[in-house]
Amino acid sequence: MTSSLDLSARISERVEKLKRSLDENLKEAINEYTEQAIQFMLGIGALPLYFDMGGVYALKPNGEIVSTSWDEVEHLTVETDQRIRNIALFQGSKKYPELSELIDANPHINRLCPDCKGTGIAPLPSGVRGGNFLCYCGGLGWVPKPQF
Prior knowledge:
Layout: H1 4-20, H2 22-26, H3 32-43, E1 47-51, E2 55-59, E3 65-69, E4 77-78, H4 82-93, E5 110-112, E6 142-144
Antiparallel strand pairs: 1-2, 2-3, 3-4, 5-6
C-alpha cells in the first residue's frame, strides 16, 4: 500500500509532466471545452481522470476527486458520492494503474451492480451498439451499498 504522501507526490509529478507535454496531450481533446477543462484542472494541480457528457473528473494531490462541467469550467465541485469517486478512479486507473489502489473495493460496503449484474458492461436495448456507454457502476461491476 502506498502512503498518502507518496501518492500525493506522484499525482503532483504526473500533473507537472502533463503540463510540460500539454500540446501533445491536447491533441486528444475533442473540442475547445475539453481543452479548457484540461488546462483548468492542471492549473489547480489536479490530474484529469475521466471525461463524460457532463464534464471532467480529476484527482487532486490531497486525494479529493473534483469535477467541473463543460458549461462552467471554473466552477469546481468536490465529489463526495462514493460511487462517482470510484467511477472516476476506475476510469482514471486505465491510464494511471497506480490509482486502482484508491478504489474502495471492500465487499462489506459494496454490492453487485443492479444494472449489469457484475459484468461492468452497460445493458443496452437490442439494436443499440455499445461504444462509449458506461454502466451505472462505471465498469466496476459493483456499487457502494446504500447508506441509511
